[in-house]
Amino acid sequence: VLRSQSERAEGGDDPAVNWAQLMNHFIESPEIAMFEGSEVTGGMGKAAVTSHDKVPQVHRSNFVDGAKHMGSGIEKISWIPFIDMLTTVEGTESVYFWSPSVVLDAPRSVTPTLPGDCYDQTGKALWTVLACAWDNELQDLVALLSNRLLVVWRLRNREKGQFQQKRELRFNAHRAEGRAKGGEKETYWKVFLASIDPKTGEDLHKDPKKHMNERSEAAARREKRDERQAAEASLQLDVWWNANLKQWVTTDHHGRLFFWDLRSNDGLEVVQQPTKVLSAHTKLVTSHLELSKFKFTTCSLDRSVMLWDNRNLSAPEVKIEDMTGSVLSQAYLPLFSSLVTVGCEKRVYVWSIDNTAYRGVRAKLSAHQANLLQVSAGQRVFITLDEACTCILWDGATLAPLQTTNCTALGPRHAVVLPTLGRICLAGRRLNFFDGNEQGSIALGAAPTKEQLAKAKSQEKEGASLKDRAVPRWCGLAPSRGSMLSATEAEVRLHTRHSPGQSRAIFNAPEGDSISAFAACDALSCAVLGTAKGAIFFLKYRSGFAMKVYPGRPEDMEEYQAGGRGAGSGGGGGGGNSAATAAASAAAGSAPTSLEGAPLGSDAPAAPAPLAGADAAARVVGPTVARSGRNSIPGGSAAAAASAAVLPAAPGAEIAGQ
């Protein structure tokens, strides 16, 4: 405070700082404003913003999942809006489909049909499903199996949930040579996809005559070793669908991302190479998420989040490494341009990423008491789940916690928001559903009903306040402080830097009056506004504190105008048709007056000046300023000369200084 306001501190060896200086420093200091949105100040005062503190937004649904789950637990779960079904991977040989609204005795399942060598002697499958993904354009379902097979189905009947198996491909690898960074040659495993024989299960690209030739024992051992290493190098652990690139994306335990275009050949080529391989991550990629037409993000166990551009995949556009633990899940709220990531730590990270670029960290939320597992987003809210089975529903606009639920009895390990239904699914051993209330379901993404729309429309007509209908007057950004102000005829609001949609009112127009003009001065950290009744307010730029107030006319506007017309039409104006007299009266009407309405330097009260004459003089002479003695009087040269005769200079009447 002494450094920033040294000119105001009292002299002496130990200068004192008064309370007003300290408060002014905290309110107006641009250095402190730079910490807005950090972990320390990001949550200050945000609990009072929301009105849902004590109203539960979601409640346990009456829908009960009574069907038998074949696996020991749900490993992966996803929501497919096109068929209104949830898909689960439970460590078995099938992909299961669940309805969130219809009680089923047994789920619908899709099981691959593979060659005989994929089963044991009893007919039990020798594989498990690792992951599945959905192509919403062609209605294709892809499953990634533990035996390195990729199986493709196509939807045939939406109502019955029937799929037809189309293709079976196997991931494989072969040795290739390349140049290292030092220029030396090195060998690596190059992954590719190969079609298999549906009867024998052998890769179609292999030459059967090659195996008929007699081989030595060393050659056979070497071949088996290469096959084992190729199988380890080509094993894929997860799969996603990139709708903008129209390609499938898989990842291995090294964090490499492989892009596969299965539409181009549709089975015509026996061997298919990946269209692109991304090696920026060093460990397993846990999530792939599309943000916009050209942007997508990936998160990994290597404690990083990467933003990619489809038009240039040579390197990530942005690499975020602020996390202290592995990143497990991510979700995006397009309405607020916010990317939410969670992982093996207790904090929730919110990043600001729009359609064009990465804007920085928005907030770090620390409401959880255990390491986080998953995050899922709706339209205006998102939900986070931690290892202690605690779920927190967050407001996407204010980042305030709306509801905290302890789900220890349910034991959930996954959380999925069903936006079109206004529901939340918590999956553990079984599926548990939570329904949103009237406001919560809409915030999750459900379309409002006709009754809700009619009710909202009636409330808008009946309870629309002046602030909602106020005409905008001014909007501007302070260059040195980064704070944005907006002014309407009803109020002045201060907007936050990281989210301009969040704001608070710092000034409200007086009752019966409205704001007619507004201007701000960033250099002086002040703003000045004028009202329709002539009041002038000098405010602090960010706090709204009124430093000086000049009250306006206490009379009603209609009465004042009526009085002005009467004075102008009578004979008390000092002559009717003389041009000099008209200019003098106009200048006198526009001259500065004291609080009582008398001209400065005069002791006698003055009658209200004619508005028409003052407005006419202002229109004729323009905005120039003429000075006479120590008085500064608005008006042109003719008006200034006339006003000099009407208003003699008074000692100390320095209007510009005041």
Automatic annotation (TrEMBL):
What name appears for this protein in its UniProt entry? Answer: Uncharacterized protein
**Gly residues composition bias: residue spans:** 563-577
Check the record and name the Gene3D superfamilies matching this protein. YVTN repeat-like/Quinoprotein amine dehydrogenase
- Domain of life, per UniProt, equals Eukaryota
Q: Where is this region: Disordered?
A: 200-227, 560-580
Q: Which InterPro entries match?
A: WD40/YVTN_repeat-like_dom_sf, WD40_repeat_dom_sf
